[in-house]
């Protein structure tokens, strides 16, 4: 089927609003089309970012400006007095200019470095306020006198008449790198300035909105300061002035750009790039400073959790890249194998540590994290996407049939996961820690504390003969139901999604795919990220013990918030981006898919793990977990029945989520912790 013309004009990945029956998407190439199609497949990771390089002509002017090299002279740049430029002056400009003045004084003091002294004096004026000024690389005239003069101390820094004709070969024989003045410059002047520019570049890059300053400073250290001073021309641009002949090295008008949150390096979002060094710091600090001489456990635990966020992003990008470049079978295997690797690495390391220490708290924290992920992905993720998407779109529609499949699986999975818990409530023996007679009558009322259902009565007959077989049965049936759901949605009933990928992007814009990550590169990154994820999870569990024992906050709350939702932040960002593009179906599916995988894959894997490595983990949850999970699933299904929603319904889901968080916050810690 061919897409309608209105669909062809839509931006890539936007749902065609005029297509009532079909969901028509546009893609630039086959790989991108495969990724878009995978987003609508049950069990596949939903990924918003492109896995291939977008054609330059298809990008907006705003995005094109982000990737500019700061070497374009505009006819009229407008006023340079902006908040971002003033911020540059306060953060970098004044002390960078002062440093250039000091270096200029040193160069003049050496006599031989006088040309570089004049260069630094001119650059001090430039870097104090570089906006609306230009640095050009000029050529020396093809005359013996000019060549001889260029070997001396002449400089064309701040103006003067520009020769009409230049010849690049004249300078080639002057031996710039063999000059005594160059040696003085490289020893006394350049190192300090290069270090300062490096500091400015790193700081501005980490601030993201000041990335133009990072580019400006990097270009100055790597290009301008290594040119012969005679070839550097610094001048202020005037609107009526004809641009000079010669190569433009630097020309900057704005120090800040709020759209740099869209900036990507080789397909990787700038936030993920900036957080990557944090992973290295976490690993070095965690394993080198194991006695906690430099930092405490709280700092290391926080760093380990923050490091999980960029690693989750890289894992998601690698999975999407491999799936988009492979056939369906390979994509399904990769998604099933690594789709839940972020959460499982933390859960398994926590259970191992709890088993070695004989501490039941770790198993309870894992159960809290599982429940927190389930509740958060059912309430918070779709609710937040509805609220943010509803700000831009008055009413959003989604595929109620595809959402119904996930809802049915959620009902099945929640019922299966909590079946052993309900079984223990019915047949378990209620045991209390201490009881007090409040009426002073032996037959009166007793007030009991720390009560729980004991499954180990009569040497554990109830647990080993009844509960444990039920747990194993459920752990087999849930993955089987997950496979049936995959077969139903991806094979026999694919029409439920009714996705049509069209390549009618724009006339004549048929581009071959230029992938950011090849399959082998994506596989290497996936394995390395998984390895680093395991190390960070190990550090997090290693340093969570003091927090659990010394914190006044309930362990339930720590599990359902920090440990549950921090690894899901990249997924939440993807859901918000889909919602902003009026594609709420994918926003809802992100939360549902994670919740289904928690119940149907992660929990059975943990049960299977306990068979080979005995831990304190049993599939018996507290009443609070049971009620919160079941209520969340029922509410979500009620909200999603009609296939449309607005920001008010999203607000309801988010508010209910925060109410449940308040319940967990004020709940007492689990028994044994």
From TrEMBL:
InterPro entries: CaH_exchang, NaCa_Exmemb, NCX_ion-bd_dom_sf, YccF. Keywords: Antiport, Calcium, Calcium transport, Ion transport, Membrane, Phosphoprotein, Transmembrane, Transmembrane helix, Transport. GO terms for cellular component: endomembrane system; vacuolar membrane. GO terms for molecular function: calcium:proton antiporter activity. The chain crosses the membrane at residues 86-109, 183-213, 268-288, 294-316, 328-349, 369-391, 403-423, 470-490, 522-541, 553-573, 594-613, 619-640, 647-667. It is found in: Endomembrane system. It is a multi-pass membrane protein. It comes from the Eukaryota. GO terms for biological process: intracellular calcium ion homeostasis. Residues 83-133 form the Inner membrane component domain. Residues 299-419, 522-664 form the Sodium/calcium exchanger membrane region domain. PANTHER family: VACUOLAR CALCIUM ION TRANSPORTER, VNX1 PROTEIN. This is VNX1 protein. The lineage of its organism: Eukaryota, Metazoa, Chordata, Craniata, Vertebrata. The gene is Vnx1.
């Amino acid at each position: 089927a061919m897409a309608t013309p209105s669909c062809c004009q839509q931006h890539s990945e936007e749902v065609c609003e005029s297509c009532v029956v079909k969901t028509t998407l546009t893609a630039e190439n086959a790989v991108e089309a495969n990724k878009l199609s995978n987003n609508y497949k049950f069990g596949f990771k939903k990924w918003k970012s492109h896995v291939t390089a977008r054609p330059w002509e298809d990008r907006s002017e705003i995005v094109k400006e982000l990737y500019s090299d700061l070497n374009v002279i505009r006819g009229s740049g407008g006023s340079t007095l902006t908040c971002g430029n003033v911020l540059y002056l306060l953060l970098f400009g004044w002390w960078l200019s002062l440093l250039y003045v000091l270096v200029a004084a040193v160069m003049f003091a050496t006599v031989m470095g006088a040309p570089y002294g004049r260069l630094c004096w001119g650059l001090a004026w430039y870097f104090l306020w570089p906006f609306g000024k230009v640095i050009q690389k000029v050529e020396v005239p093809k005359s013996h006198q000019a060549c001889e003069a260029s070997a001396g101390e002449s400089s064309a820094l701040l103006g003067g008449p520009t020769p009409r004709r230049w010849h690049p070969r004249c300078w080639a024989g002057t031996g710039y790198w063999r000059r005594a003045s160059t040696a003085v410059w490289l020893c006394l002047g350049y190192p300090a300035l290069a270090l300062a520019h490096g500091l400015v570049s790193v700081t501005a890059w980490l601030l993201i909105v000041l990335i133009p300053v990072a580019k400006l400073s990097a270009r100055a250290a790597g290009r301008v300061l290594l040119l012969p001073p005679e070839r550097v021309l610094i001048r202020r641009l005037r609107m009526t002035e004809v641009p000079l002949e010669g190569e433009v090295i630097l020309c900057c008008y704005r120090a800040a750009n709020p759209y740099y949150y869209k900036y990507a390096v080789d397909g990787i979002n700038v936030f993920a790039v900036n957080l990557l060094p944090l992973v290295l710091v976490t690993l070095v600090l965690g394993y080198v400073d194991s006695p906690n001489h430099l930092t405490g456990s709280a700092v290391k635990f926080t760093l380990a959790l923050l490091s999980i966020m960029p690693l989750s992003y890289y894992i998601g990008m690698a999975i999407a890249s491999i799936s988009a470049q492979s056939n369906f079978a390979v994509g399904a295997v990769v998604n099933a194998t690594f789709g839940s690797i972020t959460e499982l690495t933390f859960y398994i390391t926590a259970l191992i540590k709890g088993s070695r220490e004989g501490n039941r708290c770790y198993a309870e924290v894992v159960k809290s994290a599982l429940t927190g992920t389930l509740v958060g992905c059912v309430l918070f993720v779709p609710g937040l996407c509805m609220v943010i998407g509803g700000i831009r779109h008055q009413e959003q529609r989604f595929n109620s049939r595809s959402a119904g499949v996930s809802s049915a699986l959620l009902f099945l999975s929640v019922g299966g996961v909590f079946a052993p818990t309900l079984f223990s409530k019915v047949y378990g023996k209620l045991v209390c820690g201490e009881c007090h007679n409040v009426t002073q009558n032996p037959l009166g009322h007793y007030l009991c504390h720390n009560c729980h259902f004991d499954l180990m009565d009569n040497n554990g007959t109830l647990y080993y003969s009844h509960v444990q077989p039920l747990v194993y049965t459920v752990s087999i049936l849930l993955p089987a139901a997950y496979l049936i759901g995959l077969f139903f949605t991806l094979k026999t009933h694919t029409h439920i999604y009714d996705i049509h990928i069209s390549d009618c992007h724009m006339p004549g814009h048929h581009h071959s795919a230029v992938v950011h990550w090849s399959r082998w590169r994506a596989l290497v990154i996936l394995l390395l990220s998984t390895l680093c994820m395991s190390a960070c999870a190990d550090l997090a569990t290693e340093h969570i013990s003091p927090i659990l024992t010394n914190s006044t906050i309930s362990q339930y709350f720590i599990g359902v918030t920090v440990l549950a939702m921090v690894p899901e932040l990249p997924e939440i960002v993807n859901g918000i981006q889909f919602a902003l593009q009026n594609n709420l179906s994918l926003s809802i599916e992100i939360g549902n898919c994670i919740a289904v995988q928690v119940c149907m894959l992660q929990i059975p894997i943990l049960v299977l793990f306990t068979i080979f490595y005995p831990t304190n983990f049993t599939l018996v949850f507290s009443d609070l977990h049971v009620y919160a999970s079941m209520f969340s699933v029922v509410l979500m299904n009620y909200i999603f029945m009609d296939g449309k929603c607005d920001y008010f319904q999203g607000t309801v889901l988010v508010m209910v989520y925060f109410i449940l968080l308040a319940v967990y916050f004020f709940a007492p810690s689990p028994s044994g912790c």
